[in-house]
Amino acid sequence: MTKTNKIIAVFICAIMLVTFAACRGNDINPNMSADPSANNSGSPFPIVPIDNFDGGDEKDPIATPLPYSRYRSMNSDVCGWITIDDTIINYPIAQGKDNDYYLKHDAAKDTSKQGCIFVDYECKVPDGRSIVMFGHNMKNGTMFANLINYTDKEFYNAHRVFYIYFGDTRYTYKVVSVYTVDGGNPKFMRVDFANDDEFAAYQNDMMSLSMYPVDTEIKPTDKMVTLVTCNRANYQNGRLAVHAVLIEKENCDTSSLGNAK
């Protein structure tokens, strides 16, 4: 082989190696897509880029939410408010036309890397039998970062109940299942079911995955909410799912939600 041919051969091998590496890079995260509908599920899943699983920086400032009433007046997408005791989770909830917009916008529709707590766009709020809600796991502890606390048994036992306000009604939920799951398997965040039997099968699947013993009886007629955030503890593309069942709802005064004065 001449010197020229050797150079050409080395050059071709280099190209092949680069191409192979690029293909392997795509295989590592097969769910990485800008199109939420790329998942084979009844409900599109908002894909967060791999470098945003623990988004932002620990030193990022913590924004103070506006009053619930203010968000409702400025943005018709704002449909509720969520609060969990002993956490920073005390935020407005939005529901957009897709599962992408509020990954990068706050409840006032301003661009924000923290995004906004938001409901799957296909959910029937507030009375759907399965409501799925998403929030980033931010390094500064904001948004849904504190959901990770539910992996601590002591916290779990002390915080089984949390509240979501839809409109001017307070919905009280009891946590019944907590687990981590591969984000590439979106079965855990279904929002639409053909009948009670199908929903019961889904409930059984979700309960069987729980890291804690299931001590609450649930029925196909029950209504559930699922809180989802990123968690790479067990999976590179992992999610933490917190399932809760509705146990009470009542009309209430929501004027104190947020920073109203």
How many DSSP helices?
Answer: 4
Q: Helix proportion of residues, in percent?
A: 10-25%
CATH architecture of the largest domain: Beta Barrel
Report strand order across the widest sheet.
1-2-3-4-7-8-6-5
Outline type: globular
Order of helices and strands: HHEEEEHEEHEE
Uncertain runs with pLDDT below 50, 5 residues or more? 6-54
Biggest sheet overview: 8 strands, mixed, barrel
Give your account of this protein's structure:
- By secondary structure, this protein is α+β, with helices and mostly antiparallel strands.
- It folds into 2 domains: 1-30; 36-251, Beta Barrel (Sortase, Chain: A).
- 20% of the residues lie in helices and 23% in strands.
- The chain is built from 4 helices and 8 strands.
- It has helices at 3-28, 68-74, 153-158, 196-208; strands spanning 78-83, 90-94, 117-119, 130-134, 161-166, 169-182, 224-230, 238-251.
Which terms would index this structure?
261 residues; alpha+beta; eight-stranded mixed β-barrel; 4 helices; 20% helix
Brief description of this entry?
This protein is of the alpha+beta class. It contains four helices and eight strands; from the N terminus they run H-H-E-E-E-E-H-E-E-H-E-E.
Describe the SSE topology.
Layout (H helix, E strand, L loop, with lengths): L2 H26 L39 H7 L3 E6 L6 E5 L22 E3 L10 E5 L18 H6 L2 E6 L2 E14 L13 H13 L15 E7 L7 E14 L10
Parallel strand pairs: 2-3, 4-7
Antiparallel strand pairs: 1-2, 1-5, 3-4, 5-6, 6-8, 7-8
